[in-house]
Design a protein that fits this description.
Elements: H1 4-42, H2 45-63, H3 71-81, H4 84-98, H5 101-112, H6 114-140, H7 142-167
Helix pairs in contact: 1-4, 1-5, 2-3, 5-6
Length: 168
């Protein structure tokens, strides 16, 4: 039969073991998070957040000039809620939820290489060029898209009319 003293001793050892495992797990998690932050900084995410926010506000103000009087409010709001400091915990969580620590280390290694640095440097240009390519596809094939939409609408109207007739 187990005595109270033996039970207490075993419980103490069990709790000590759990604390060691939990402490190791927290350290591993923090290391994973630190590596994710390193990757985000390496790839220029903090600066990109600022640039994207500025562009988004500028585009919005161009599309809706009547909002110009609120420009300072928009910029202040965006600076407060979409800054690196504001989004960093969520971005780190996003990366640690989607990449293992080893994968993050691999990405850091890649983005630290000459090819990775070139990829970071060219990324905005490539995204812009891709956007232009897609725009050109829509412009070149706009008539075909219009026909497809028109055909869809005709088909939908015919099906709706048939359905209404079946209700009579």
């Amino acid at each position: 039969m187990v005595t109270f003293r033996q039970f207490t001793a075993c419980s103490g050892l069990f709790l000590f073991f759990i604390m060691i495992c939990a402490d190791t797990s927290i350290a591993q998690q923090n290391d994973h998070q630190l590596k994710a932050e390193q990757l985000l900084i390496l790839t220029g995410v903090p600066n990109t957040l600022v640039q994207v926010s500025i562009i988004a506000i500028d585009v919005q103000l161009q599309e809706e000039p009547q909002l110009k009087k609120y420009e300072d409010i928009f910029r202040s709001f965006v600076a407060q809620h979409t800054s690196w400091d504001a989004l960093k915990p969520d971005l780190i969580r996003l990366y640690t939820d989607n990449f293992t620590e080893k994968e993050i280390v691999d990405l850091i290694r890649f983005y630290s290489s000459p090819t990775g640095k070139k990829s970071i440097e060219l990324s905005p240009h490539l995204m812009n060029q891709t956007s232009l390519l897609v725009q050109n596809v829509f412009m070149k094939n706009g008539a075909q898209l219009d026909k497809m939409i028109h055909h869809h609408d005709q088909k939908y109207r015919a099906e709706a009319a048939d359905h209404l007739k079946s209700l009579d």
